Amino acid sequence: MTENKPMPLKVYNAIVKDFNKMTSFSRRAENELKKKYKDVPSFTIGSIISSLVQRSMKQSYRKSPVISSRYYELYEELMKDKHKGDVILKLADSQGISPALFVRSLLQNVSSDSNEVKKFLKDTTLIENKDLAYQVFLGIMNDNQYGPYADIIKQSIGLEYELRLESELRMMNISFSDENVLRLRGYDKTPDFKLDVPIAIDGFIVNWIESKALFGDEENHLGYMKDQLMCYWNRFGPGLVIYWFGYLETLDSTPEVNNMFILRTKFPEKTSITQYKIDL
Fold first, then answer.
1. Residue 135 to residue 141: CA distance in whole angstroms
2. What does the pLDDT read at residue 277?
3. Which residue has the higher pLDDT, 59 or 95?
4. What is the pLDDT of residue 156?
5. Name one GO cellular component term (predicted).
C-alpha cells in the first residue's frame, strides 16, 4: 500500500456537496458516489460518507412518541401491499433518514423500554411480530453506515488495522507496549502503541502511535485532539497518527502537526525511519 497524499479540500467539498444531495442513506446511494469518484479509493469514500451520515443522523434523530407512532402507521399501511418488498428501505428513503435510524424510531412505538429496543436491534428474532422482525432485519443489514451492523463493521476494521500495524512493528523489531500493558501500569487514556525506544521518522521524534481506520477530516480530528491526542502528547511526548483511509490536506497546516505529532496514511517504510532506532 503506497502512501496516499492528503485529500485536497476542493475534492472533499465536492464529495460533501454530492452527499448533501442524497435522498437515500442505504448502500445504493453510497455505491453511486463511489462510481462518481473513481479516483478516490473506495474505502476512503466509504469512510467519509460514514462520518457524514453519523453527523446527519445525530441532527435528525428525535426521540418522540409522535414521530414513532407516525412511522408505525406508515409501516402498517405499506405492509398491506401484497408486493410490499423492502418496506423499511422505502420508508427510510421517504423520510430522508438512514434505515437503521428509521428502525430505531419505529421500534420505540413497539416498546417504551429503550433497553428492550436495543436488544431488538441487536437480535431481531426477539421481536414477536415476525413480519416486523424480518423488515427490521432487512433495514439494519442494508445500512452499513449507521446502527448496530455498522458499529460491528467499524470495530472489526479498527481491530484489523491495529493488528496490521502491530505486525509491521514486530517485523521491524520495534519494541512497544500496547494499550493493555499501559492500562495495567495505571494509564487511563493510552495510545494504541507506546514505543519502548523512540524512533525518528523523517527527522521527527515518535514516542507513540495511534491507529485510526478512517478518513481524518477537521471535525473528527478536532474531537480526537481534545479527547485523546493532547493527553498522549502531555504524557509521552510527540507521536504519530495514522489515518489509514486518508486525511484532509488542511490538517497538515494546523499548529499541532509537526510539533506535537505527524500524520501519515500508513506506517512508513524502514528507509523513512532515520537511524531506524535512536537513543535519546
1. 10
2. 55
3. 95
4. 95
5. nucleus
